[in-house]
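User: Show me a protein chain along with its predicted structure.
Assistant: Here is one chain, sequence first, then structure tokens.
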Amino acid sequence: MNAILGLHRQLSRYDANLSDWGGSMLSLVLRFYVGSQFFKAGLLKVSDWGATLALFNDEYKVPLLPPDLAAYLGAGGELLLPVLLFAGLMMRPAALALLAVNILAVLSYPQLFGFECPAALNDHFYWGVLLVVLAVFGPGRFSIDSILARQKP
């Protein structure tokens, strides 16, 4: 009986270690996938700033913020927050902040709800779910947050 329990303990340790590494790898992939979507959107915004300002003034209806300020904050968030995700630095706050950017993007562009093809709205939904998963489960081993947590004070 002790031999069976010992084998079970060894396999459990191996399984927990494998799950930790697998979860860390999955987190890394999710961080880069979601982050790249927002980073590309930020690059697009700054590549034609005049068009971006026009969109925020004419199309997007960001609540409580003046359109120009919303454009600066939106582009800045889409460029800075993904870098934090990529590095795994302050990853949970960055994921939650990107979730807020994602929600504001959907709320600010009500035409998304009227399109015949719901692909754009679905993309925002999937990105939101992935950001919640990242915020809940954390960055994993392959992150600056993990390195800092392992250092002794």
